[in-house]
Structure formats: C-alpha cells, structure tokens
Prior knowledge:
Structural class of chain B: alpha+beta
Number of domains of chain B: 2
Number of strands of chain A: 20
Distance between the termini of chain A: 57 Å
Largest interface: A-B, 80 and 82 residues
Helix content of chain B: 10-25%
Mean pLDDT of chain A: 96
Shape of chain B: globular
Low-confidence stretches of chain B: 1-12, 101-106
Largest sheet of chain B: 7 strands, mixed
Mean pLDDT of chain B: 92
Number of strands of chain B: 23
Largest sheet of chain A: 6 strands, antiparallel
Number of helices of chain A: 11
Oligomer: heterodimer
Radius of gyration of chain B: 24 Å
Shape of chain A: globular
Amino acid sequence: MSELLEIAERIVxxxxxxxxxxxxxxxxxxxxxxxxxxxxxSLTVAESSGVGIRVIRDGRQGFAYAGTLEPDALVEVMREAxxxxxxxxxxxxxxLAVPDGVAPIGMDLYREALLNLSIDAKVQMALDLERxxxxxxxxxxxxxxxxxxxxxxxxxxxxTTGIRSTSRETGCFLSAYALAEQDGETQTGFGFSLGRQPGxxxxxxTAAEAAERSTRMLGAVKPSxxxxxxxxxxxxxxxxxxxxxxxxxxxxxxxxxxxxxDRLGEDVAAPVLTLVDDPTDPAAYTATETDGEGLATRxxxxxxxxxxxxxxxxxxxxxxxxxxxxxxxxxxxxxTPGVGVRAVAVVPGDRxxxxxxxxxxxxxxxxxxxxxxxxxxxxxxxxxxxxxxxxIRDGELAEPVREFTIASTIQKMLNDVTAIGDDLQWLPMxxxxxxxxxxxxxxxGV
Amino acid sequence: xxxxxxxxxxxxxxxxxxxxxxxxxxxxxxxxxxxEVFVEDRRSTSALLDDRRIEELTSGRDRGAGIRVVVGExxxxxxxxxxSPAGLRAAATAASAAARSGGSGxxxxxxxxxxxxxxxxxxxxxxxxxxxxxxxxxxxxxxxxRSRDGAITQVTARYADSQRRIQIANSDGxxxxxxxxxxxxxxxxxxxxxxxxxxxxxxxxxxxxxxLFDRVDVEELAGRAAGRALTKLDAVPAPSGEMPVVVGPGGxxxxxxxxxxxxxxxxxxxxxxxxxAGRRGEVVAAPMVSLVDxxxxxxxxxxxxxDDEGQPAQHNVLIxxxxxxxxxxxRLRARKEGRESSGNGRRQSYRHLPMVRxxxxxxxxxxxxxxxxxxxxxxxxxxxxxxxxQVNTATGDFVFGMTEAYLIEDGRLTxxxxxxxxxxxxxxxxxxxxxxxxxxxxGSPGTCGKDGQGVPVGDGTPTLRVARLTVGGTAA
Lengths: 446, 476
C-alpha cells in the first residue's frame, strides 16, 4: 500500500510552477472460479494496476491514465495529462481538493483471512455451490453459473494541495444462477452472498435462494394491466434507490439534469422515507474510508422524513455551490472524479415483509426487474421496467407472473411509498435493499 | 524460424514470436489441450464538452496479455500488464496452475503466421489528428444544439477514438493479429419546459478513422439530438398494454439483438439456458424474417478482421426465411462440437476471457412499403429510436426502451410519447412480425454487455411491425 502512495507522491513531485497535480494509483488482485457440471469451468487469477493523473493550470484540467505502474508509462501519462489541459476551457472552480480536517473513520475493511484462503478452498466453494443448488429441488434442471469471486484492492491519492490518502479493502462474493424446469417451461432465479472474508459467505443459503427464486416462478403467467399496490423485494428496491441517489448529485443539479434541482428543503417523498448515504457504515459492501479525491467519506442524510435535505458534492461542485465537499467524489483510475452516492439506505421500518404483505388484499411482489438502463430516464423521472414476481391475494403470496412492466415516475413513486420493511440488506451495488410497499404503480401486461 | 508478416499496419508485430512461443511452452509444460496468448495494446482519446465548457481531454493506454490454458473441461486464465518475457512466463505459469493440469505430458508448439484478413483500411489515423481539431467538433455541436431552440438548456458532446492492436498465438500453431480503429461522436441534450425536463441523444460510430467527420455533419447530428428532446416536451404518457408496434428503419436492431440474438449464442445454448436450444432447422420466426450476424461489414461498429481468438470474422446467417439455420460460436464451444468457430469469440480486453458475442446483427430488407405499414396500423406505437434492452435467454422474455416514439391513431402518427420500456417474449415476437419494409438502415453504435464485459456492436433493420408487444406506459 505504501508503495502506491510512494508512486503517487513521486508523480506529484513532478509538478511545475503554477501546476496542481493529483495522482491516483490502484492495485487489485482478483480470483474468480466458475463451476459447471461438477468441474471447474474456469479459474481466473489476476493482478492489475493503474494510474490516473490530473494536471490543472490556470483553471484548465488535463487528464490521462494507463493500466500499469511501470516507470516509463508514468512519465508518458504525466506528459499526456499536461498536454491535454491546454484544450480545456478555463474555469474558476476547477481545482483540486484540499485537506478539510475531517479524519477518515477507521473501518476494518481489509481481512487477512481472505488473503490466506487457498485456491483449493475457493474452488471447493464454487463446486459446492453448484452441487447444492442442483440438489435443492428436483425441478432444478441446471445451473447456468455458479461462481466464487474475490478481490483485494488498494489505492492511494496524493496531490500538490497536501492530500495524502490510502485505502485498502477485501471483498468476496458467491452467486448462483439456477434454471428450473417443469412441463417444458424454464424459469430462472439467482442467489448470492457477499462479505469481506470467506467466513461471511453462506453457500447453503445462496443455493437455497437461487433454487427458491427460480422454482417459485414456474407456471408464471402474464398479468392483466392496471394500477395496483406493488411490493419491491430488497433486490429490486436497492436498484431503484441507487437511481434516486443518482438524481441527488450536485453535478446533476448544477448542470440542470436533476429533477430535484429546485426542491431543497421541500417535501419530495412520503414522510415514512428517510434516505441516508453512508459509506462509513462497515456493513455496506461499498464502504470506503476515503473518496475519489482522498477526502474522508461521511454520513450524508439525503431525505429526512420525506424532506430533501442535501445534494452530494465533490470538491469542485462544492466550490461551485459555495459549500463543502460531502466526500462524494467517485472514480476509477481511468476517470476524473465525478459525484455520486456510494452506500444509500433507507432507515428501515419495524414490520417484517410477511407482515406487510398480509395487509395487502390485491397486489404484486416484484422479485426482479429488467431494462433499468433503457426504461428509466433519471432526468425526466419517467420509469418503466420489465418485471417478474408473485401476485398477492388476500394477504398471501399467490401465483407467479412474468412478461409485464411496472411504470410510474420517480417523483410520484417516492410519494407513493406507504410502508418500509425491517429487512435491510446490503447488496453488491451502491444501495442497500429493504422491502418497500408502493401504493400504486401501473402494471402493463395483457 | 517463424516469420511474421506485419498485419497490424502500424509499427510492426507487437511481440517477438519467440517470446509468445516461450509463453505457450510454459503454459503447456504440464499438459493441456489448448493454450493461447492474447496480447492487446489499446490507446484511446476522449474529449468531453458539458455545460458549455470543454471539461476534459483524456488520453488512455492499456496494454497487456491474457493467457489461457484448457485442461479437460477447465480453463485456467491469468493476465498481466507486464509484457516482458518474464512477465508472460509468470502469467503462463499462473494460468497453467489454474487449469490444474492432469500432467499428460509436454507438448511442443510451432507457430505458423497466418496472413488472415487485412485490417480495415483507415484514411486518417485519429492519432495523427491534432487534439484541437477533435475539441473543435464539440464546440460546433454545442452551438448547433443550443441554436435550435432556447428551450435547450444543457448539451453534452463527446468525442472518442481508440486504436486497439491485438496479437494472438495459440497451441494449434496460429499466429495472427489485427488493428482496430474506432471513432465515435455523441450529443445529449436536455430541454426544459412546463412539463419538466426531457432528453434527446444521437450518436454515430464507425470502425474508421477521423474521415468519419468528412461524412458526418456534427451540426446536423446535434440538431437531431436537440429536436428529439424538444419534441418530447409535448409528449403524452405512453400507453399501457398489448398493441401493434411499428419500429422505424435502423431502430429495430436492438429488438432482434435481445429477442433472439443472445439466445443464439452457443455458450448459452450449450447450457440449455436459451429458449432456442435444440431448435436448429425449426421455424422460429415469421417466413419473411432473415437475420444475419456479420462481423465483416466495412466500417460498421461491430466490424473486425479477426475475432479475439484469431478467427476471421464471417457473414453468418442465423435465421433464413423464418427457419433457424445456425447459432454463433467461439473456439471453445466449436471445439467441443467438432466444428469451426464462426468468428464470434470476443472479449472486452486482455483482462477478460473470450466468449460468444454478436458483431453487427441485422434483419434483411423485406417487400413491404413503410407508409403502408403505418397506414395499416389502426392503433399502436411507432418507435423511431430505441434505447437499449435486456433479455433473459432462458425464458425468452426481453425488454427494450423507446427514447423517441409516437402514438399511432387511425394509421397516422400523432402525439409523441414519454420514455419507457416495451416487453415481449422472443420466440413469440419473432412469429408475430407481420410486415417488413424495404428501407433497410443501420442503427446507432451500441455497447453490448454480457457477464460484465462490454463490446462494441452494430445493428440494422428496415421498418417492421410486430403485431403484438406490451407497451409499458402509464396511460390507461
């Protein structure tokens, strides 16, 4: 890790007079095992690294990156970044982050236990996952993929403005994608498990979940169109909350691309909804101590009891807005810092999903959505996605349904949230999931 | 001694064949059926204009090698950014260990340089064009979009080019390479009105150099993006439910990409994770449907001389007159079936394993008249631009988005409608196609995602009608 910081510091040392320089250096080790029909289908072991350099002079920014840390490449990247700045439009707010005195919250995101896990043990987990998924139910006809993957990543940021930051994290992940078959019909379902070390992973539960989610879709029919109460399961709600979080980026607001731009301090959601972006929660899979500019991450309340409390900022959008960074710069080594939420979660309610469903006479439980990239317009707020799930009749889960869409607008949906479950669950994305009841969505089917 | 002819068009072969041979030797040292070294050197430039400012010009370089070893049913894979002989040997050792060799003895490999299809000719290498000229395009687009109407409140314009050189050597003795140049330009606009914010996007991308801008007028492209956003300020909510859907020329490629393209990829077929498994030779679509995947289409976004396993790109007929003729294949899946790869083995970069992917997928032109198709549709939706899609190949259910669409009432286009998805089932939708026009057009450049890997793909269609799809709007 200190080696990455040394590299970043060396680059920063190349700054000429009047130049601001920022270097980000990253290194990652990954393993991925895929099992198929009792054999290892593929095993990938890889190390990769990269560097990104920003040079700013007279309010102009230039950027370049390379997927290596070789000394010759660093020199070339520096030269390119310096050359590129000459083509940018000068901007008074274009500048690097400066240390803001906020200390990173120490979190234990790096586990030696993962580093010490043998390849054989990883292979065994993938093989077990496939076998257990296949044997979970006699209707499971195959497993399209059963996978174990992990990563050990570290990064460092250094700047001429005095930023020196390092971070390192471990993560591991199991996923199974099951095929269920009955009477010539096939349905699919996935299960997953994630954590920072192997002990966090639950092979049995992952297999059982994939089997359950696929078999319960057997016999699914297309529902009729209409407006009805819809329940999002955690997997689905997390995807929508991630999109909502995206609309609260300071950059989207400043550039006239946020549907919430003029609504700070107003009620934009049902009072039951409090939404927080907190990358300092170690339970979040996306937790991190520092952001893409090397500032400490922090807990940001976005919506409090339905009222819009704040937008998130990196140092540049904060300067433009006359405020301070919320530690929300997001980036890889191959891009300049953007602005975004990292770990969005709603404050959970106190009722179980079963309890919430028991109060719904006629509705739908959504367990999967598709086409979020093609059917959600985060600028206008229109959304419409493909969906599958189960009907809810008289408070009980009933027949499976598929090949329909659910639609509304982001604005309306946030106001239509009527209840929140107690089942908060961190997922492999920038949001946590929780059971959410939406009073009314348009269902398009037959 | 192996001779290598320069097939990369630039500064010669990328790595010395002897270095590749050594790596293959290490990869096969403890046995195995197949080993391969894939070397890639990618340089890219992108420039972004947003909020009236040239925000940044970015230069990128990614260079490295991916080595795979196949032992029995297992593929071992390792990659490295270190292209020195020692770096490659280390990756080869890791890949070999990963494949858990059964130790069936050492194989000697000799490389045979294949003069495969020539790399695409490029008139103006993007790397030879001054950066200032690239940036100037963005400002022209910004001005054009904003001058279209005062309601255009934001414009984002992006220029991107890439030069990707690849070199492939494998234990079958293959040694080949390609140079792939891509140039892309896109404009996104936000229009603001009483109904809120709306968006419009337009893009153009080809496997050619900077001569793209001799053929494409960026002002006109920006004007179309702006027009799309402005039109939608008056849009009504999309209808909800099943109805006929007419897709305009060039717009329908995504529909086929999702409705059946992915389902015809041999890796998904082999795992019975496709509704089209076992259906070769059967009628799977209406009789006028002929669908092709063609990696050889000059200049198109999904074009290449060889795929990422060294196989020359081909013109592959997938459906002929409604009958399923063949799937798409990569080397691994073809090897198991005892046949040739169809040139569809692709990977995002040297850091990824290849798998079966589409190239340029298109529906051949039909005999119908586009105006008559519209006039013959009493009530439905006309989709002028699609915005991507997704499919579950095992069930066949697929969605695709509409980013410019209109109501059809009494055979005429009426109100524009707001963005949303349409949903259908692939096998049913293919049979429900009841009209195909003669106005074939290629669509916009796309990036296809599968298992976390993105690759550039093209598509094209004439105007067509599907008798019944579910439109996912909110209107009654």
